[in-house]
UniProtKB/TrEMBL annotation:
Residues 3-204 form the N-(5'phosphoribosyl) anthranilate isomerase (PRAI) domain. Pathway: Amino-acid biosynthesis; L-tryptophan biosynthesis; L-tryptophan from chorismate: step 3/5. It is an enzyme of class 5 (isomerase). Its EC number is 5.3.1.24. It catalyses: N-(5-phospho-beta-D-ribosyl)anthranilate = 1-(2-carboxyphenylamino)-1-deoxy-D-ribulose 5-phosphate. This is N-(5'-phosphoribosyl)anthranilate isomerase. GO terms for molecular function: phosphoribosylanthranilate isomerase activity. It comes from Nostoc linckia z8. Keywords: Amino-acid biosynthesis, Aromatic amino acid biosynthesis, Isomerase, Tryptophan biosynthesis. It holds the Pfam family PRAI. The gene is trpF. GO terms for biological process: L-tryptophan biosynthetic process. Belongs to the TrpF family.
Length: 221
């Protein structure tokens, strides 16, 4: 199962978090976000990361040209779209960045809304389900209704996001079976400042879960 830690702002923390067990790191490329990082900051954060760590830039309603430039300049391996991007936009982005993983994030409120995500599955590699917030795109600390996802199935892998913490992650994984999990605010001292002790505790609990002491990993590995 993939584990993505999002909202990385400090190079030394990116290295530490990768060494603790993260398979993907997320960098916020939305200027209005308190976790926003520039291209040069991303370059510094990914410079010493192992090649097998996914480096994902998070964008919201940015132009294809702007996304492409940041991806090329920063050395990103993936793009997460967290705005109102259409399936057609995702298709155009795929043509512009053929070798980059494209993730589409959705802020889910209702089962009906969840079903509309099927419109994107032909155009993106991975889906991400986050909690709805009327003003903020992510990193809100709010959880979504996991029950909505218990019967969810897709031909694309998907991340569970939204208010996940060391306290509730095993409860979440007991209810749903995602391909990956995405955590941000639940591991922070302040926006963009990760608490490495919490990160270590997260992987300790995931490890015990995987070993069967408190449960098991889902099948979406």
């Amino acid at each position: 199962m993939r584990v993505k830690i999002c909202g990385i702002t400090q190079p030394e923390q990116s290295i530490a978090i990768a060494s603790l067990g993260a398979t993907a790191l997320g960098f916020i490329c939305v200027p209005s976000s308190p976790r926003y990082v520039t291209t040069s900051q991303i370059q510094a954060a990914v410079a010493q990361l192992p090649e097998n760590i996914d480096k994902i830039g998070v964008f919201a309603n940015a132009s294809i040209d702007a996304i492409k430039q940041i991806v090329i300049d920063s050395g990103l391996t993936g793009v997460q779209l967290h705005g109102d991007e259409s399936p057609e936009f995702c298709d155009q982005l795929r043509q512009a960045l053929s070798n980059i993983e494209i993730l589409k994030a959705f802020r889910i409120r209702t089962p009906e809304q969840l079903q509309t995500t099927a419109n994107y599955t032909n155009y993106v590699d991975t889906l991400l389900f986050d909690a709805y917030h009327p003003q903020q795109l992510g990193g809100t600390g709010k959880t979504l209704d996991w029950k909505m996802l218990q019967q969810y199935s897709s031909n694309r892998p998907w991340f569970l996001a939204g208010g996940l913490t060391t306290d509730n992650i095993i409860q979440a994984l007991s209810q749903v079976n995602p391909s990956g999990i995405d955590l941000s605010s639940g591991l922070e001292r302040a926006p963009g400042d990760k608490d490495l002790a919490k990160v270590a505790l997260l992987f300790e609990r995931l490890g015990r879960w995987g070993d069967g002491e408190v449960g098991r990993w889902g099948d979406g590995e």
